[in-house]
Specification:
The complex is a heterodimer of chains A (331) and B (366). Chain A is mostly helical and 331 residues long. Chain A has 13 helices and no strands. Helices cover 67% and strands 4% of the residues of chain B. The longest helix of chain B has 30 residues. Chain B is mainly alpha-helical. The chains are: A mainly alpha (331), B mainly alpha (366). Chains A and B meet through helix 4, helix 5, helix 10 and helix 13 of A and strand 1, helix 5, helix 6, helix 11 and helix 13 of B.
Chain lengths: 331, 366
């Protein structure tokens, strides 16, 4: 009886197009932010400022959307703004060599404060631009994937492309090798002639730009509106995803879709959700959405513990030099 | 690029951290002034108003100290772990856990006499915070799991737990629609000390002083510092690192939990925003104080004043978030400036003297 109920619910859930659309939206958003953090961490810079960077990106993107009327222009402006904003962390932790944990958290607090301060007047304003769904002609009419994957907006394809580019650059190019070398052993990379500080600054900047895109996507597509608490922990999920995905762009994508799915599924257990008007096509189990919203964080802790147990006998998956400032005269 | 570079000082600059804090403050106030001008306000006028609201009268002092209490205790919580080289990023969540445990105690014994109820609530709060820190502590001590991420994740879980409670099981049936718990019993309110300050100021001061002395004078504190400076040295002299990590992280969580208990007195009931950023602010306080209890108290009062000032200028149409911005900038400025306590800038020509120190002078920035 119970099993039948759960199976029935699962069927309702999996055939709910709205759920899949939400899953993709949150997945894209988380993927962009987490991908940026992968790049920064691969270069040896832990940036706990993602939550704040996304807030700045969300506010800037929303503002730029109103000013320009174009979601793409707004997203680019947000990406540039956050890349510059991330340089605060870059200068303090990479150039000056301050503790990355403290500097990153300060960036989050600064970002949340700045976004709230500068975005005060935006709260009551409607969105000036939104990302529209992209129809792929015949593909968009395929049942199942048509109205979901093949109808997602352009940012979804951009995110996938950025993931592919990131994987390629990190693993198949000289620049990526240098970046990873800086993150594994800064002193060795330095001795080999790689500019450590410059490489890390670029990585932090790209990480910021990606977080900016994620923020802009939040206010120009997912919500679409602005208020100061709109990021609401999504940035921390992005930080978690990097660990969850073991610093690999591909695995992080799987994690982003999984966590995006948890966010999308949450509210659907709250009330009796029905597909169409058929009474038989309803979700019967009630789970509090707040409880579901804890799962990404709880899962990350579980994965972290499992990774630690795994790395007892094997080398750790994390970049070895992560969190360490590099000063040549102290090597 | 211009030939300037950083060279290591032979000795750390005396009083360097105070200097760094001063530089950070100047950077922050200058940037804040730019923001205020952009928003169409006179920075001098706003800053004077903030200072007056924070220090201008006994009442102002009482509100500043009231704000300094959670900052100081949260700062101490982070500093306790930090003095051993551990990062408790979870103070925010532990404050919430403390508040949950404290109000749970109050729900169990609503008819207890005031002093007893308050004592039990505060003990409960400390235990609550300690319990939330226990998981990361065990994981770190026995499995080597990075405590930064686990405590960070538990923040979000604690936040959602209190959200669940005030929206569900603990929701006040008389509050139509508002997700708040019922008010705590009247006798649970902390007695007034002076003006608007309650005895939480004394409690925080006592905890800071006791811990400051204990950490400085006791064998425990000594071992803590050894473990913080070198794990190998600690193991060599027979200090059990595992036990140290466990006790330190749980103690850190308990101190943060106490903040949650004390905040219940200020808010009359548990609400979703009971921690309102105190835990994260505590990290700033501890970092600026270089993990020292005496420094924590000083920075907490300075930041308490900043928050009071931030709230006071709300009426002028300036968003209170200016206080958070300035706090973060003080830290970032001080972090950046702190490099000069151990390094000095060397000009393009001055290294060519051929003296012994120039050998380890090498380029950091260009």
């Amino acid at each position: 009886m119970i099993i039948a109920g759960i199976l029935g619910d699962l069927q309702v859930l999996l055939t709910d197009t709205g759920m899949w659309v939400n899953l993709l939206e949150f997945g894209i958003l988380l993927y962009l932010a987490a991908l940026g953090e992968v790049i920064a961490e691969k270069a040896g810079v832990l940036n706990l400022g993602v939550e704040g960077m996304m807030a700045v990106g969300a506010m800037t993107g929303y503002w730029a959307g109103i000013q320009t009327g174009s979601p793409w222009a707004a997203a680019v402006i947000a990406a540039l703004a956050v890349a510059i904003f991330a340089m605060v962390h870059g200068v303090v932790s990479v150039v000056m060599g301050a503790d990355q944990v403290v500097s990153g958290l300060a960036l989050t607090i600064l970002g949340l404060g700045l976004a709230a301060f500068l975005g005060t007047d935006l709260v009551s304003q409607p969105a000036g631009a939104k990302f529209a769904n992209l129809s792929l002609g015949q593909l968009s009419e395929i049942p199942g994937v048509g109205p979901t994957l093949f109808s997602m907006d352009g940012m979804g394809w951009v995110a996938l492309a950025l993931g592919l580019i990131t994987w390629f650059v990190l693993n198949r190019t000289r620049a990526g090798l240098n970046l990873r070398a800086v993150g594994e052993s800064a002193a060795t990379a330095d001795a080999a002639g790689t500019p450590v500080v410059a490489t890390r600054l670029v990585a932090v900047g790209i990480g910021g730009a990606f977080a900016g895109l994620a923020g802009a996507y939040l206010t120009l597509k997912v919500t679409p509106s602005w208020n100061e608490s709109i990021v609401g922990g999504l940035g921390w999920i992005a930080v978690a995803l990097v660990i969850f995905g073991a610093w690999r762009p591909g695995r992080v994508l799987i994690g982003a879709l999984l966590f995006g799915g948890l966010i999308a599924v949450g509210p659907r257990f709250q009330t009796r959700r029905c597909n169409g008007d058929e009474i038989t096509n309803c979700i019967t189990t009630e789970i509090n959405p707040i409880v579901v919203s804890m799962l990404p964080y709880a899962l990350t802790i579980v994965v972290l513990v499992l990774l630690s147990i795994r790395s007892r006998n094997r080398p750790s998956l994390a970049p070895a030099a992560i969190g360490q400032a590099y000063r040549r005269e102290e090597r | 690029m211009f030939g300037f570079r950083l060279a290591k000082r032979d000795q750390a600059l005396p009083g360097g951290q105070v200097l760094a804090f001063g530089i950070g403050l100047i950077v922050a106030l200058a940037f804040g002034a730019v923001l205020l001008v952009v928003a169409g306000h006179s920075p001098v006028e706003i800053y004077l108003k903030m200072a007056d609201a924070a220090f201008g009268s006994p009442q102002a002092w009482s509100t500043t100290l009231t704000q300094a209490v959670p900052l100081g205790l949260a700062g101490l919580a982070v500093a306790v772990a930090g003095s051993m080289g551990l990062w408790n990023i979870g103070a925010e969540g532990q404050i919430i856990a403390g508040a949950i445990a404290g109000s749970w105690v109050a729900r169990l014994g609503p008819d207890l006499p005031g002093p007893m109820l308050i004592t039990l609530m505060l003990i409960g709060a400390a235990i609550g915070g300690g319990i939330l820190a226990l998981g990361p502590a065990i994981a770190r001590a026995h499995l080597g799991v990075n405590e930064i991420i686990t405590t960070l994740m538990l923040n979000e879980i604690a936040l959602r737990t209190v959200r669940y409670l005030v929206n569900g099981p603990w929701k006040d049936p008389t509050s139509i629609g508002f997700p708040v718990a019922p008010e705590l019993p009247e006798q649970a309110a902390l007695p007034t000390l002076f003006e608007r300050a309650d005895i939480s100021v004394l409690i925080a001061a006592a905890v800071l002083i006791v811990f400051g002395f204990y950490a400085a004078r006791s064998k425990w504190g000594f071992e803590l510092r050894i473990a913080g400076s070198s794990e190998k040295a600690a193991e060599y002299v027979g200090i059990s690192l595992k036990r140290k990590i466990l006790t330190v992280l749980v103690l850190s969580g308990a101190i943060a939990g106490l903040v949650g208990g004390l905040r219940l007195g200020a808010t009359d009931r548990i609400v979703e925003g009971v921690a309102e950023g105190w835990g994260f602010a505590g990290i700033i306080v501890a970092a600026l104080a270089l993990m020292r209890p005496s420094g924590v108290a000083a920075v907490a009062i300075a930041f308490g004043a900043l928050r009071v000032g931030g709230v006071a200028i709300k009426g002028q149409g300036v968003p209170a978030s200016i206080a958070e911005i300035i706090q973060a900038l003080v830290l970032l400025g001080a972090l950046g400036a702190a490099v000069f306590t151990t390094y000095r800038i060397v000009g393009p020509k001055s290294y060519s003297g051929g003296d012994a120190t120039s050998r380890d002078t090498s380029e950091v920035t260009s």
